Structure formats: C-alpha cells, structure tokens
Amino acid sequence: MKLTRFLQRLNSETVTVELKNGTVIHGTVNGVDMSMNTHLKKVKVTVKGKNPVSYDTLSVRGNTIRLFILPDGLNLDALLVEDKLQKVQSTAPGSQPTGPMAGGRGRGRGRGRGRGRGR
C-alpha cells in the first residue's frame, strides 16, 4: 500500500506533523491528496524557537513534511487492510483498460495536420 493511500485513511484522526524546517504542527486530519498535501483543522503550529499559534484550518504542502506522528490508540491493522475486491477486479484476465487514453491513439504529439504531398 502506498503511503499516501494510508494517510488518506487518517481522516478525523489527530496527528502531529513535523516539517523539514523543524516546525511542529498538531491538528486533526481533514484530508490528504496524492501529492501528500495535508489539510488539517483545529491546528496548533509551533515554529522552531517561537510561541505556538492556533488556526482553524491549515494546508501543508506534501514535500515539506518530514514525518507524521500517529496517535497511540490508532488501529493500524484496520487501516492497512487493502481493498481486495478492487484489486481482484482490476487484475481480472481479459479486463479492458479504462480511462481517457485507454483505447489507443497514443502517438505522443497529437495527430495534427498531414505533412504535405510526400515529395
């Protein structure tokens, strides 16, 4: 399971996030996207060497995060269980790929106009 998928399951959990610059953020997870950008509510931010500041909501860019400190009472076994039904469906033999570019025409630079008469 990818780390971002795991973090997305932490909705409404109170966590502590440490940033690469030493800032410590303590708040409740509101959401995490695939870039690991983390959206928190009821936040207390402690910048290194300064007094804590409280915010209602805060978004943290994913590449500035050093680590997450999870609560002690968190049931990791339940969070780490993958959706097996979804995996079985996606790896079924004979299944067709889905999405906007599933069928073809993947030539890279678009089709555009022709190249003239070919002389």
Annotation keywords:
119 residues; SH3 type barrels; alpha+beta
Arithmetic mean pLDDT: 84
CATH topology of the domain at 3-73: SH3 type barrels
How can the largest sheet be summarized?
Answer: 5 strands, antiparallel
Total beta strands:
5
**Class computed from helices, strands and strand pairing:** alpha+beta
Strand order of the largest sheet: 4-3-2-1-5
Explain this structure to me?
The protein is an alpha+beta fold and 119 residues long. It has a domain at 3-73: SH3 type barrels. The protein contains 3 helices and 5 strands. It has helices spanning 3-8, 76-80, 84-90, and strands at residues 14-19, 24-32, 38-46, 53-60, 65-69. Strands 4-3-2-1-5 form a 5-stranded antiparallel beta sheet. The protein is elongated, with a radius of gyration of 22 Å. The termini are far apart.
How do you describe this structure in short?
With 119 residues, this protein is of the alpha+beta class. 15% of the residues lie in helices and 31% in strands. The protein has 3 helices and 5 strands; from the N terminus they run αβββββαα.
